[in-house]
Design brief:
The complex is a heterotrimer of chains A (279), B (267) and C (303). Chain B is mainly α. Chain B has eleven helices and no strands. Chain C has two domains: 222 residues, P-loop containing nucleotide triphosphate hydrolases (Rossmann fold), CATH 3.40.50; 58 residues, Alpha-Beta Plaits (2-Layer Sandwich). In chain C, helix 5 links the parallel strand 7 and strand 8. The chains are: A mainly alpha (279), B mainly alpha (267), C alpha/beta (303). Chain A: InterPro entries: Pilin-like.
C-alpha cells in the first residue's frame, strides 16, 4: 500500500522531470567530435579477429561525422572539421582491414576535390591494390586522380589500363584512351563523377558527387559557350551575362554550392562559392 | 537503520571478496597503466587521447562491474541458497533489496573514484610529456566521471530489477547489456525518428519508438566525454535535470523491483 | 496464545505446462508454548512447504498462520523466531563471527549483546576454533552447527528447525538432541521437521505426520509409546520349567528362563511366577516402535 503511494509520487515527479529533461536533451549543445583513433598497428593487436568489425565501425563513425558536417542543426556547436582525424581514422581502419572498400571509397570522395590530398590518397589506393587485386575501382580512382588533379597523364594511363584489364569495362578503356589525348578535363570529370554517383550506396556520399557533378556540368556549359564566343568574336566577353544576351548561352546555370558563376580576370569560369560546401 | 546498514556492509564485503572482481580491477589498472603508451601513438594529440582512453577504460570497467554485480545480486543468493537463511531473518525484502542496491552503488562509486584518481595521475604524466594547446579541464573530467558513475548506478538498478524477476544469471546479464546499448543510442534514434525519416515511417512505429525512448534510461545525457576532452561548455540547468532524472529513474525501478521481489516465492 | 497457529493452510504451485501441484492441503495445527513438536513425513510430503510458509519464503494460497501472535509474512513475526533452514548455506565469504554479527544486526541487538551472545553460541556448538575462518572452508556438519548457532543467537522464544539432524555425524546428532532438550527445559517452543522417527522418540512432546500435503495424525509421543507396547520379555531364575497359556518359554544358559508374555497377561503371569518362588531378573516391554507406527500412517495416507 505504502509502496503504491511512493511509486505514484515518484511517477508524478518523474513526469515533471522527464519533460524538461527530454526537451533539454533535444536542444542541448552538441559538439560533434570525431576524436582520435589509435594507430592501426596498435588496434590490430587488441582487436584480434574482431578487427574487421572494428574497421567497419571506424569507417561508419567517420561517415556519420562527415555527414553531420553538412547537415545544419540549430543546437550544434560549430567546430572546425577534423580532416586530419578523418584521414587518420581511415588509415587505421585500412590497417585493420585492408579490404574495406568503404574506406577507399570515402577517402577518394572526401580528400581529393576539396582538400587536394592527391598524393596521400593515391598512396592509400596503391596499398589497397596490393590486397584488392581483382578490383578495377581502385586503379580507376588512382588514374583519375593522377590525370585530373596531378595532370600526370602517363601514370594515369597506366592505372586506367590496369582498370580496363581487370574489368573489361569499356568505360575504363574510353577513359584510358582519352588520357592519351589529354582530352577535355571537364568531360572527364563529369564522366568520373557520374560513375561514382551511380555506384554510391550511402545517400550522403551520393549527394556529394551529385552536387559536384552539377557544378562541373554548369562550368562545362559556360566554358563551351565561352569558347564559341571567342571563336566567333576573337575576344573575351566582359561578363557572363553578355553570353546570354548575345545568344551563346540560354541562361547562366546555378551553382549548387550556393554561389554565383563569374568570369575572373584571366577569363576562367569560377564561382563565388569556390565550389566548396559550407560548414 | 541498523538492519539496512548491516545489509550494505554485507553486500560490500561480498563484492570486495569476490575473486572475479579482483581480476576485473586488475585488468582495469593495467588498462589505465597502458594509456600513456597507447597515447603516444597519436603524435598530435597525446593529452586528448590520454583523456579519451582513460575515460573510456574507466567506463568499460564500470560497465563490466555493474552488469556483473547487478545481474548476480539476487541470482547468486538464490543459486547458493543464501536467501533461505537471510530472508527468514526479520528483514523485509524491500530493505534487503535497498541494502543490496546501495552496497553495489557505493562500490561502483568507489571504483569510479579510485580508477579516476589513477587516471588523473596518468593524464598528468602523459600531458606533461607532450603539452597540448587545450588546457586540461579537471573539473569537466571529474564531472564526466561523476556522470558515468550515475549512469552505471542507474544500470545497476536495471540489473537488480531484472534479477528480481528471473532465476537465471544470463537473463539479467544480457538484458542489462541490451538496455545499456539501447539506452546509449535511444537519443539519436529518437531524433532520427522525430525528423524527416519519421515521416516516412508510419505513425504507429514512430509512437512505439517514442514510447520505448521514454521507458528505457537515456544514457546519452550522461556522456560528458566531449566536454571533458575538449573543454566544450556544459549547461548547469541541464546537469541538474540529468541528475534528478537519474535519481528518479533509480527510485522508480527500485520501487517496482521491491514489489516484484516481495511477491516472489522461494520454494 | 499458542506459539504457532496454523489455520486451513493450503499451497498450490502452478507448474509449467499448466499443471497444478497441491503441496499443502488444508493444514490446521497448533503448537503450544514450551512444546517440542516433531513434524514427521516422507520426503516431499509438505514439511518444508509448511516451514517455508511460516518463515515467509512462500505465501500460502489459502489459510493463515501466526507465530507469537503475529501473522507470518510480516517481517516482525520473525523477531522472536530462530530458524534453521534445511541444508543451510550462509554467506561463505564471511567468517562465522562476521555472519553472526550480521544476524545480530538483523535482530537489532546492541554491540554488547552481540558480543556476549556470539561467544555463547559459538561455545555451545563447539565452533570457537573456526569462528574467524571464512565459512567457505567449513564442513557440512560445521555449517549445520553454525546454522543452529545463528538460530539461537538472539535467544528466541520459538525455534523452527528444518531437518536439524541431517548431515551430522553421531556426535553432532547427540549434541543437537541435547540442545533441543535444553531448550525444552528453558521453556522454549521447538517445531522441527524430520523423517527420522528415532529423533522424535527421544526429544518430542508431540508428533504430527504429514503425507502428500495432508496432515494425517497428531499424537502425544508418550501416548504413542505406551500404546505401542504389545508384550513383555521376562527373565526369571529359580525355576526349571514354566508353562502358561499364551506365554512362550525358552531356556537360556545359567538357569535362566525367558518368557514372552502378551501385554494383557503380564499381571497374571507375574502373580503365577511369584507364587512359585521365581526370582524376576528382568522385565522389558516389547513394543511396536514409532517407525512402524509412522509407516502405517504413511501407508494409509497414500491410499
Amino acid at each position: 500500500m505504502t509502496r503504491g503511494l511512493i511509486l505514484g509520487a515518484l511517477l508524478l515527479l518523474y513526469a515533471l522531470v522527464v519533460v524538461p529533461f527530454t526537451t533539454y536533451m533535444r536542444q542541448r549543445p552538441v559538439a560533434l567530435k570525431l576524436g582520435y583513433t589509435p594507430a592501426g598497428e596498435a588496434l590490430r593487436l587488441v582487436a584480434s579477429d574482431q578487427r574487421y568489425l572494428l574497421a567497419q565501425l571506424a569507417v561508419d563513425r567517420v561517415l556519420f561525422y562527415f555527414g553531420s558536417l553538412f547537415t545544419k542543426d540549430g543546437h550544434r556547436v560549430s567546430t572546425p572539421p577534423e580532416y586530419f582525424n578523418m584521414f587518420a581514422t581511415m588509415q587505421s581502419a585500412l590497417k585493420l582491414d585492408p579490404y574495406n572498400m568503404d574506406a577507399y571509397y570515402f577517402t577518394e570522395a572526401a580528400f581529393t576535390w576539396e582538400l587536394k590530398r592527391i598524393r596521400e590518397v593515391n598512396n592509400m589506393l596503391d596499398y589497397g591494390m596490393k590486397y584488392r587485386t581483382w578490383d578495377a575501382q581502385l586503379p580507376f580512382y588512382a588514374g583519375f586522380n593522377a590525370a585530373y588533379f596531378s595532370k600526370d597523364y602517363r601514370t594515369a594511363s597506366l592505372y586506367m589500363q590496369k582498370a580496363a584489364e581487370l574489368s573489361g569495362n569499356p568505360l575504363y578503356t574510353t577513359l584510358a584512351s582519352r588520357y592519351f589525348y589529354e582530352a577535355g578535363q571537364s568531360a572527364l570529370g563529369i564522366t568520373f563523377l557520374r560513375a561514382m554517383e551511380q555506384s554510391a550506396k550511402d545517400a550522403k556520399v551520393k549527394k556529394i558527387y551529385q552536387v559536384r557533378r552539377k557544378a562541373l556540368e554548369g562550368i562545362t556549359v559556360i566554358s563551351d559557350a565561352l569558347n564559341r564566343f571567342r571563336e566567333a568574336r576573337h575576344t573575351l566577353p566582359p561578363d557572363l551575362k553578355t553570353l546570354v544576351r548575345e545568344g551563346f548561352l540560354s541562361r547562366i546555370p546555378e551553382d549548387p554550392y550556393g554561389g554565383t558563376f563569374y568570369l575572373d580576370s584571366k577569363g576562367k569560369v569560377v564561382s563565388s562559392s569556390k565550389l566548396a560546401g559550407k560548414q | 537503520m541498523d538492519v539496512f546498514r548491516a545489509t550494505v556492509v554485507m553486500t560490500f564485503r561480498w563484492i570486495l571478496r569476490d575473486r572475479v572482481l579482483h581480476a576485473i580491477l586488475a585488468v582495469a589498472l593495467l588498462m589505465i597503466l597502458l594509456v600513456p603508451a597507447l597515447s603516444t601513438f597519436s603524435m598530435r594529440q597525446v593529452q586528448e587521447l590520454s583523456i579519451t582512453l582513460s575515460l573510456s577504460a574507466i567506463s568499460f570497467v564500470l560497465l563490466m562491474v555493474t552488469v556483473l554485480l547487478g545481474a548476480s545480486s539476487v541470482w547468486r543468493d538464490i543459486e547458493r541458497r543464501y536467501l533461505a537463511s537471510v530472508l527468514t531473518l526479520p528483514i523485509s525484502r524491500t530493505v534487503f533489496l535497498l541494502g543490496r542496491f546501495c552496497g553495489i552503488a557505493c562500490f561502483i562509486a568507489l571504483c569510479g573514484v579510485v580508477l579516476g584518481a589513477a587516471a588523473a595521475v596518468i593524464i598528468s604524466v602523459s600531458s606533461a610529456q607532450y603539452p597540448s594547446d587545450i588546457p586540461i579541464h579537471w573539473d569537466k573530467i571529474g564531472l564526466a566521471l561523476l556522470a558515468d558513475i550515475a549512469k552505471y548506478i542507474m544500470l545497476a538498478s536495471v540489473g537488480i530489477f531484472f534479477s528480481t524477476v528471473s532465476t537465471s544469471f544470463y537473463f539479467p546479464f544480457f538484458a542489462s547489456i541490451g538496455i545499456y546499448l539501447a539506452g546509449s543510442g535511444s537519443q539519436e534514434v529518437y531524433e532520427y525518428v522525430s525528423g524527416q525519416f519519421g515521416k516516412e515511417m508510419g505513425s504507429v512505429s514512430v509512437a512505439l519508438f517514442k514510447a520505448v525512448y521514454y521507458l528505457i534510461p537515456n544514457f546519452a545525457a550522461f556522456d560528458l566525454k566531449v566536454p571533458a576532452i575538449y573543454g566544450v561548455p556544459v549547461l548547469p540547468a541541464g546537469l541538474g535535470l540529468t541528475f534528478s532524472y537519474a535519481v528518479l529513474y533509480c527510485a522508480i525501478l527500485l520501487c517496482v523491483s521491491s514489489y516484484t521481489f516481495s511477491r516472489r516465492q522461494f520454494p | 496464545m499458542n506459539a504457532i497457529d496454523i489455520r486451513n493452510l493450503s499451497k498450490t504451485y502452478r507448474t509449467r505446462k499448466w499443471g497444478r501441484v497441491d503441496a499443502l492441503q488444508d493444514l490446521t495445527l497448533s503448537v503450544g508454548k514450551g512444546e517440542v513438536f516433531g513434524f514427521l513425513g516422507p520426503n516431499g510430503a509438505g514439511k518444508s512447504t509448511t516451514i517455508k510458509t511460516l518463515m515467509g519464503l512462500i505465501s500460502p494460497s489459502a489459510g493463515t498462520a501466526q507465530m507469537a501472535g503475529v501473522p507470518v509474512g510480516d517481517a516482525r513475526c520473525r523477531m522472536k523466531v530462530g530458524y534453521l533452514p534445511e541444508n543451510p548455506a550462509f554467506y561463505d565469504f564471511l567468517t562465522a563471527r562476521e555472519y553472526l554479527r550480521f544476524v545480530a544486526a538483523m535482530f537489532g541487538m546492541s554491540p554488547q549483546e552481540t558480543q556476549a551472545a556470539t561467544g555463547k553460541v559459538l561455545g555451545l556448538l563447539e565452533l570457537e576454533g573456526a569462528a574467524d575462518r571464512p565459512i567457505r572452508g567449513f564442513s557440512k556438519g560445521m555449517v549445520q552447527r553454525l546454522g543452529l548457532a545463528q538460530a539461537m543467537l538472539h535467544d528466541p522464544e520459538i525455534y523452527v528447525l528444518d531437518e536439524p539432524m541431517s548431515g551430522l555425524d553421531p556426535l553432532g546428532r547427540a549434541l543437537v538432541k541435547n540442545i533441543i532438550r535444553d531448550l525444552k527445559q528453558q521453556g522454549k517452543t521447538v517445531f522441527f521437521s524430520t523423517h527420522i522417527t528415532a529423533d522424535v522418540e527421544v526429544v518430542c512432546d508431540r508428533v504430527g505426520v504429514i503425507v502428500k500435503g495432508k496432515l494425517q495424525t497428531v499424537n502425544a509421543v508418550h501416548e504413542l509409546l505406551a500404546a505401542g507396547v504389545v508384550g513383555y520379555q521376562v527373565q526369571v531364575t529359580g525355576l526349571s520349567d514354566f508353562s502358561g497359556e499364551g506365554v512362550e518359554v525358552t531356556v537360556r544358559g545359567g538357569g535362566i528362563l525367558e518368557l514372552q508374555v502378551p501385554r494383557e497377561l503380564l499381571s497374571l503371569t507375574l502373580e503365577k511366577l511369584g507364587s512359585r518362588g521365581a526370582e524376576i531378573t528382568l522385565i522389558e516391554p516389547n513394543r511396536q516402535d514409532l517407525e512402524s507406527f509412522f509407516l502405517e500412517v504413511v501407508a494409509q495416507g497414500k491410499k
